[in-house]
Every structure is written in structure tokens, then in C-alpha cells.
Design the sequence.
């Protein structure tokens, strides 16, 4: 089969012929129709995770149909149309993943291939209202946004939500989910064009985080926020607490801009703020996410759709974060 393999870290993935996987006990092989990229894929090529073993097929997100089922698998049959829950071994605790938790596409071979082998428990029915590419855009980014907003953020209608770095895949889903919930969304970006796109999707306002004093302008023009969804971290993280209402929540799901530098603890305890971390989501969160999206008929925002053969360039281009929403692969 054809697959995008990473032969060595700090190199580009390569389109190669590799052996097709075979389903073992409790496993299924899915014939992929589409996949989508995450910043994680780029970071793996750069060696920025511990314990990367090559060769490795990248990719955490995929949609397709069941090709073969292994021993013990009775709830799925060849031809079933599915979307893949992007991780394994969340464990029993809804509050946090197990120490054995893994994400598809490292260490186990991922979805940038014609076929992928996963546990049968990772399969969910493909939403009927979405096509293959839209479906493949959901897993990592949609799940991360859903858990950050709904589970950790406890989002309710009528709230004011700040979403930082709106160009990111998670951030665009967070914008769509906030609006679907009946709350208002304010976004930040380095790009006026991305702010314009967010306003067209329904954001109430957008500010450039590259401008000095954007936070003060937000407070003056819109007032403090109930909830902040942040994937950037970095030197600006400590200032985000100034933008919350007393009792507000700041949910962190990433640190694209690096480590935070300062945090005023007085503001945190006196104003009873909640600083919460969020990572992906459990299978139950994934099921709830798919139900939420279907109920609100939410379609993922696709920035670019490229053929598998152009995947290596698309992964390398993630370095510049030029996209708005998801970059997908047609397989
Ligand atoms: N915890 C988890 O389970 C999980 C899951 C998925 C992703 N993540 C992490 O979340 C982050 C985002 O991933 P992604 O795939 O959604 O996005 P992405 O496509 O990698 O985009 C990253 C975005 O970060 C924004 N950004 C960069 N510097 C910023 C700053 N100083 N302030 C605010 N925004 C800034 C940029 O927004 P603009 O272009 O608008 O300027 C950029 O588009 C990554 O760090 C990723 O590793 C974590």
C-alpha cells in the first residue's frame, strides 16, 4: 500500500510502498478515504516528542470503511463507514487519560496511508451528513475543542468566550462550537485575513495579538470573558488572566508559543480563577462530540484538500501555520 513514512526525524515524510497491515485479535483494518493534518504531525517530523521510533507512518485523523476484521470483532463488518477515535487506552477515569494512553500516528502507525490497523473500540459510525474529507477533519482538533470548551470549560449559552490564535484547527472548531452553544466568541490572530474569516463565521470581534495592548482594548470594547480557550501559551499566557471575569476559566490545550513566563498568583486566588489543562478527550467525549456536531449540523472548516502524494509538503508547510481550519488529505 502507499503511505507517508517518516524514515528519520528532522526529515520530510516520504510517499512509499509499505506492507499492508493485518487485523489481529480485537483489531480492524480500515481502508482510508481521507485523513487530516495536525501540528503534532509536523512536530513529530521535527523530533519534538520523546521516544519517536522510525520508520513510522504519520497521521492521527482518518475516515474510511472497514476492510477486514480480526478475531473477536463482532460489532463491525467490512464495508461499514467509520471515523476513527484518534487515541487508545484512555482508561476508566473520565477526568484524565491513563499512563498507557497513546495517540494514533506515533508510536503506532497512523492514517496517512491507504490502510490503517486500529482497535475495534476506536471505530465510530461516520456522520451521514458529512463527506469523507469533512469527517476526517474532525478527530483530534474537534475532540480537543469539544473537551476544552464543554467538559473543562463547562460552556453554557450566553457566555463570552475568547479563543486565541484562530488560525489553528482546534481554535476554528472552538469558534463553531461556541456559536452553536449560543455564546459569543471573540478571537485573536496574527492575521487580519484570518480575523475576517472568523467574523464571517460569526465571531463577534477579532483582535491582533501582535498589537501591544490588545487585551486592554478587548476589556474596554467588550468587557471581561467567562472562558478563554488557549493553545498558544508563551510569554502572553500570564496576561490572559487579566481578561477573565472573577470565577472565570482559562483552558490550555497547547503551547505553540512556548512556556509561560509570569503568572500573578494574587489575581488567581483573589479572583477565584480556574486554570485548567485539557488534552484530547475520552471515547465518551468523542461520542458526545459527534452527537453535538450532528445536532447542530456543524461542518468542519477545510482550508486545503491535497492528494496523499502532496502530504509531505503539506506537513512541512504546517511550520508556518498559514492555514485557517484544517488541511486534509484525499487518499
Ligand atoms: N492537548 C491536546 O490534546 C492537543 C490537541 C491538538 C492540538 N494541541 C496543541 O494545540 C496547539 C494548536 O494546534 P492546532 O493544530 O489546533 O493549531 P495549528 O494549526 O498548529 O495553529 C497554531 C496557531 O497558533 C496560533 N499562535 C501562534 N502563536 C500565537 C500566540 N503568541 N498567541 C496566540 N496564538 C498564537 C496561530 O494563530 P494565527 O495564525 O491565527 O495567528 C496558529 O495558527 C498546538 O500547540 C498543538 O500541539 C494539543
Sequence:
Amino acid at each position: 500500500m502507499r503511505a507517508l513514512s517518516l524514515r528519520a526525524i528532522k526529515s520530510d515524510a516520504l510517499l512509499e510502498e509499505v506492507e499492508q497491515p493485518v487485523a489481529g485479535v480485537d483489531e480492524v483494518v480500515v481502508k482510508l478515504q481521507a485523513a487530516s493534518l495536525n501540528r503534532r504531525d509536523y512536530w513529530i517530523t521535527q523530533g519534538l516528542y520523546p521516544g519517536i521510533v522510525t520508520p513510522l507512518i504519520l497521521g492521527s485523523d482518518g475516515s474510511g470503511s472497514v476492510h477486514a476484521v480480526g478475531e473477536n470483532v463482532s460489532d463491525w463488518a467490512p464495508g461499514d463507514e467509520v471515523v476513527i477515535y484518534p487515541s487508545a487506552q484512555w482508561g476508566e477515569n473520565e477526568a484524565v487519560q491513563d499512563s498507557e494512553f497513546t495517540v494514533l500516528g506515533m508510536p503506532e502507525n497512523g492514517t496517512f496511508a491507504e490502510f490503517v490497523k486500529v482497535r475495534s473500540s476506536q471505530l465510530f459510525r461516520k456522520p451521514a451528513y458529512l463527506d469523507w474529507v469533512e469527517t476526517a477533519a474532525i478527530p483530534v482538533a474537534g475532540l480537543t475543542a469539544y473537551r476544552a470548551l464543554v467538559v473543562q470549560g463547562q460552556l453554557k449559552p450566553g457566555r463570552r468566550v475568547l479563543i486565541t490564535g484562530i488560525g489553528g484547527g482546534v481554535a476554528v472548531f472552538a469558534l463553531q462550537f461556541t456559536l452553536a452553544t449560543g455564546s459569543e466568541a471573540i478571537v485573536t490572530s496574527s492575521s487580519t485575513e484570518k480575523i475576517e474569516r472568523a467574523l464571517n463565521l460569526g465571531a463577534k470581534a477579532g483582535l491582533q495579538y501582535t498589537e501591544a495592548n490588545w487585551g486592554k482594548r478587548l476589556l474596554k470594547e467588550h468587557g471581561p470573558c467567562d472562558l478563554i480557550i488557549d493553545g498558544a501559551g508563551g510569554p502572553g499566557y500570564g496576561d490572559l488572566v487579566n481578561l477573565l471575569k472573577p470565577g472565570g476559566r482559562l483552558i490550555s490545550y497547547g503551547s505553540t508559543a512556548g512556556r509561560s513566563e509570569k503568572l500573578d498568583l494574587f489575581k488567581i486566588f483573589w479572583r477565584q480563577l480556574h486554570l485548567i489543562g485539557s488534552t484530547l478527550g475520552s471515547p465518551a467525549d468523542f461520542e458526545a462530540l459527534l452527537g453535538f456536531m450532528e445536532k447542530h449540523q456543524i461542518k468542519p472548516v477545510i482550508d486545503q484538500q491535497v492528494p496523499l502524494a502532496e502530504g509531505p509538503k503539506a506537513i512541512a508547510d504546517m511550520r508556518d501555520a498559514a492555514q485557517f481550519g484544517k488541511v486534509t488529505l484525499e487518499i
Q: What stands out?
A: The first strand starts at residue 2 and ends at 6. The domain at 2-138+300-330 is CATH 3.90.180.10 (Quinone Oxidoreductase; Chain A, domain 1).
